[in-house]
């Protein structure tokens, strides 16, 4: 059927998860019958045989719902163009599913390229076929890899292996010849610890610090890259540089009982070439390669920096015809031990370039450069001088009162890059295998007088899409949101790390228990956190124990509940925000194993007794302290462990039901019920309406986890409100655990005004206090400007708790219904808070763009929203009655796409189909 409305079908390829693929993109403005799409990404190297396909529908017609789809997957462009799905023709499938549609065709083989397209039927009409998209299957089995691991398992005379080890980069090269016409070529590489790959002198890809970090004894990631256009007829050359990364960690191996090290850098490489005559050739890593460690990268260490001697450069080393007669023969080395896995999450790259704001002379030959923003990355420098001139760049987050660089909070990380000039020409340099967390740079040895124009800040984080935007009428909230965004992106490093600057940079589970959920509104972090679940699973002990850090680069198996329970909350976030059911299925048994282990080992008198960290980083009684020693501020560890276990049991029950494991669901419900009874018996004082010693966290957790008796909820909420507003004088009093539920807990229980007070404060302790004191990211401590420097990172995210969730779900009113995940059904209910006059937010969900833009003008409420096609929304409009609500120029109840449901308090509740709406109402 034809329809005058415009329907856009948008296919956009990206790897959504380790178990599949989702596809995202952008369409031209076209008619329904002449549909076109613009392909943004070609996924290469998927190591699953049933990838999941997704598409986005955009329609100018309101309430557009998909009724059916048809997917074609073909082995060639020609077959797909002829509408021949020789790999899979789904036929017309009656379904509204447009996300995570699993491939169900013939078995897919390793290195196979697949071409696919989709068409949909909606209640508004039928689309044309989309433009073709592609995906390529990777090397599915270790036996598919040809060649051997190569490297050199020793250091060299100019290296040193100490607490501050210096190990130069290894350069490897090989020449080969192609004598036929090439139809396709794919490079597969596992370069450990980090690699850069070159073909015929050109860098392959724009990734940096690749591949993603793992526990290399358990799993190693490979990258697959289409390099067809980089090869040429006749002689070719391939070259790699291997850096140290998290693989060679001798720098920290002075604590071998705590810190893992894996060995010297090494590589496995396959270049698979397909010729137009149907023949194939493989260029592989073997002992025909040549190796040289006496190149320009003299040392590279994530914590201490990189040293580069331009006089050691080897022009043409990665091109054919280079004289490598003095290079060593690469040797066969032991493989790392971990399973070969396609890297389905994004690599890091240079995501932005920023300019410094000032440069000041500190003393003779010493300058301080201010980037104006704390971030993670490195500095690109332009310099001209004499041969042998040496420039040192030392990085820090702050300066001292006398203007000198502040480095005490870096602990023993030296965080210094060194560049030795070749001289005589303008030279430009940036490091390759390090990153720094910094705002300020101490520059020494620079020939002449350095200027702002000589430097750029290179912002490094995972190549993920920014999906959210947020702005309000409150300047403090806006600055904190900006600080949060910079802090979050700074700590995406192929895994979520705690900080980017000191000698730690570890993937602590407790930092992201709830934080990952908030982050998902700003960035598409679905692939990163799906990968992190794999890291957690690989770090699990045979008995079920899960560490506090995963990958377990630090051997911290403390068996507390609050940190490892992140395993469940991340899986739940991926399902809620992205509709990722596969991660739940994949990890369910491992999660259950941990739940059983903790219950069996640590249940006493009906409660879970093991806790390690307490309510970490609660504001202390003195601004000079790191941790509070006041018992009145500390929350009982058994209370924390038991309440968290109840919440984990609730999530496991939900997962069990999704997986049709009804006996498990009943078992987890019984566990939670038993703990609730013992919990209330031990900790609850119904007369006072408080738990334990009446800390905010002690009262908040049973409130949000459904532990408190229903008839005591109001009294308990009064205790929480009094604690904040009277005893704490309207300031925050929670640490990492309590802050995970603080803003939503207050709002859900009738006190969004208190949540707003906490969000907008600018004095201590608060997020605004950080901004008031010059922070451009989020601190590790509420008192990060005054506490002991051994633990006062200026770029952390753990204290954000649920603040970003609150921004989007409660202030802007953009929330996915838990019963219809991935924003298939959207709950739009912004809180009307005195002091806020407008809020604007957008979120690119997997179904499409959601927008909420509201403002108050006296008693008038104006709200513009966008609901994606193939979804619907429950819209709660502040109004005295439904008759007081208009959409456009007509009564909302008579407007196309809207259905009035009921009045709910001072809200008119409508169900909205997809489309753009403009509401006005009298409140």
From TrEMBL:
Pfam families: Bac_rhamnosid, Bac_rhamnosid6H, Bac_rhamnosid_C, Bac_rhamnosid_N, Ig_Rha78A_N. Residues 466-811 form the Alpha-L-rhamnosidase six-hairpin glycosidase domain. GO terms for molecular function: alpha-L-rhamnosidase activity. Its EC number is 3.2.1.40. Residues 180-351 form the Bacterial alpha-L-rhamnosidase N-terminal domain. The keyword Hydrolase applies. It catalyses: Hydrolysis of terminal non-reducing alpha-L-rhamnose residues in alpha-L-rhamnosides. Residues 360-461 form the Alpha-L-rhamnosidase concanavalin-like domain. It comes from the Bacteria. Keywords: Hydrolase. This is alpha-L-rhamnosidase. It comes from Arcticibacter tournemirensis.
């Amino acid at each position: 059927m034809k329809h005058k409305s415009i329907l856009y079908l948008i296919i956009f390829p990206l790897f959504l998860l380790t178990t599949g693929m989702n596809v995202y993109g952008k369409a031209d403005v076209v008619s329904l019958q002449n549909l076109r799409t613009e392909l943004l990404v070609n996924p290469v190297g998927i190591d699953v045989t049933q990838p999941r396909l997704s598409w986005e529908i955009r329609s100018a017609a309101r309430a557009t719902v998909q009724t059916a789809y048809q997917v074609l997957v073909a082995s060639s462009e020609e077959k797909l163009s002829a509408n021949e799905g020789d790999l899979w023709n789904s036929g017309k499938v009656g379904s509204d599913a447009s996300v995570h549609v699993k491939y169900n065709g013939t078995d897919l083989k390793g290195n196979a390229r697949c071409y696919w397209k989709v068409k949909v039927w909606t209640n508004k009409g039928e689309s044309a076929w989309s433009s073709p998209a592609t995906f390529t299957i990777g090397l599915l089995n270790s036996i598919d890899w040809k060649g051997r691991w190569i490297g050199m398992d020793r250091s060299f005379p100019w290296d040193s292996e100490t607490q501050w080890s210096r190990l130069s980069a290894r350069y490897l090269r090989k020449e080969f010849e192609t004598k036929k016409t090439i139809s396709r070529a794919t490079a597969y590489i596992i370069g450990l610890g980090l690699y850069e790959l070159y073909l015929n002198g050109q860098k392959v890809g724009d990734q940096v610090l690749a591949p993603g970090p793992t526990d290399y004894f358990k799993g190693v990631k490979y990258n697959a890259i289409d390099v067809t256009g980089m090869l040429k007829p006749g002689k070719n050359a391939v070259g790699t540089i291997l850096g140290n990364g998290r693989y060679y960690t001798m720098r920290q191996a002075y604590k071998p009982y705590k810190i893992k090290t894996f060995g010297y850098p090494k590589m496995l490489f396959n270049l698979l070439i397909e010729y137009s005559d149907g023949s194939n050739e493989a260029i592989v890593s073997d002992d025909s390669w040549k190796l040289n460690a006496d190149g320009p990268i003299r040392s590279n260490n994530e914590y201490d920096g990189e040293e580069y001697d331009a006089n050691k450069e080897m022009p043409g080393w990665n091109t054919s015809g280079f004289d490598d007669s003095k290079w060593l023969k690469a040797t066969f080395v032991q493989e790392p031990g971990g399973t070969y896995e396609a890297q389905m999450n994004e690599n890091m790259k240079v995501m932005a370039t920023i300019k410094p704001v000032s440069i000041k002379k500190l003393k003779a030959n010493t300058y301080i450069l201010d980037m104006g923003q704390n971030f993670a990355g490195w500095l690109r420098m332009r310099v001209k001088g004499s041969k042998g001139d040496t420039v040192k760049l030392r990085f820090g987050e702050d300066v001292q009162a006398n203007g000198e660089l502040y480095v005490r909070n870096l602990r023993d990380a030296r965080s210094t890059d060194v560049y030795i000039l070749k001289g005589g020409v303008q030279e430009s340099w940036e490091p390759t295998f390090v990153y720094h967390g910094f705002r300020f740079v101490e520059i020494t040895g620079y020939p002449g007088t350095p200027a702002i124009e000589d430097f750029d800040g290179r912002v490094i984080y995972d190549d993920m899409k920014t999906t959210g935007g947020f702005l309000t009428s409150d300047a403090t909230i806006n600055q904190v949101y900006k600080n949060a965004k910079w802090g979050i992106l700074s700590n995406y490093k192929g895994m979520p790390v705690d900080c980017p600057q000191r000698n730690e940079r570890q993937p602590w589970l407790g930092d992201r228990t709830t934080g990952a959920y908030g982050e998902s509104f700003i960035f598409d972090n679905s692939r990163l956190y799906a990968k992190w679940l794999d890291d957690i699973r690989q770090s699990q002990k045979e008995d079920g124990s899960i560490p506090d850090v995963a990958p377990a680069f630090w051997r911290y198996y403390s068996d507390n509940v609050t940190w490892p329970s992140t395993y469940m909350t991340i899986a739940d976030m991926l399902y809620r925000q992205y509709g990722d059911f596969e991660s739940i299925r994949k990890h369910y048994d491992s999660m259950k194993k941990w739940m059983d282990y903790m219950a069996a080992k640590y249940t006493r008198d009906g409660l879970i007794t093991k806790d390690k960290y307490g309510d970490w980083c609660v504001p202390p009684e003195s601004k000079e302290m790191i941790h509070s020693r006041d018992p009145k501020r500390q929350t009982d560890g058994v209370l924390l462990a038991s309440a968290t276990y109840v919440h984990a049991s609730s999530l496991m029950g939900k997962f069990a039901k999704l997986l049709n494991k009804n006996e498990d669901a009943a078992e987890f419900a019984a566990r939670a019920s038993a703990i609730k009874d013992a919990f209330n018996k031990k900790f609850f004082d119904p007369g006072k309406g408080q738990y334990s010693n009446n800390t905010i966290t002690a009262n908040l957790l049973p409130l949000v986890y459904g532990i408190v008796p229903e008839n005591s909820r109001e009294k308990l909420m009064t205790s929480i409100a009094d604690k904040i507003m009277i005893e704490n004088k309207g300031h925050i009093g929670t640490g990492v655990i309590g802050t995970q539920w603080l803003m939503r807990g207050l709002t859900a229980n009738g006190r969004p005004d208190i949540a707003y007070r906490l969000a907008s404060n600018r004095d201590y302790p608060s997020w605004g206090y950080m901004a008031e004191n010059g922070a451009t990211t989020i601190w590790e401590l509420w008192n990060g400007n005054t506490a002991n420097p051994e633990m006062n990172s200026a770029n952390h995210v753990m204290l954000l708790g649920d603040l970003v969730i609150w921004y989007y779900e409660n202030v802007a009113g953009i929330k996915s219904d838990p019963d219809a995940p991935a924003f298939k059904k959207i709950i739009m209910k912004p809180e009307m808070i005195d002091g806020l006059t407008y809020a604007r937010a957008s979120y690119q969900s997997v179904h499409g763009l959601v927008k909420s833009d509201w403002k108050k003008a006296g008693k008038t409420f104006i709200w513009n929203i966008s609901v994606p096609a193939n979804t619907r929304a429950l819209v709660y409009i502040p109004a005295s009655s439904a008759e007081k609500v208009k959409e456009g120029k007509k009564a909302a109840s008579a407007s196309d796409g809207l259905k009035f449901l009921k009045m709910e308090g001072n809200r008119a509740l409508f169900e909205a189909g997809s489309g753009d709406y403009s509401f006005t109402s009298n409140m």
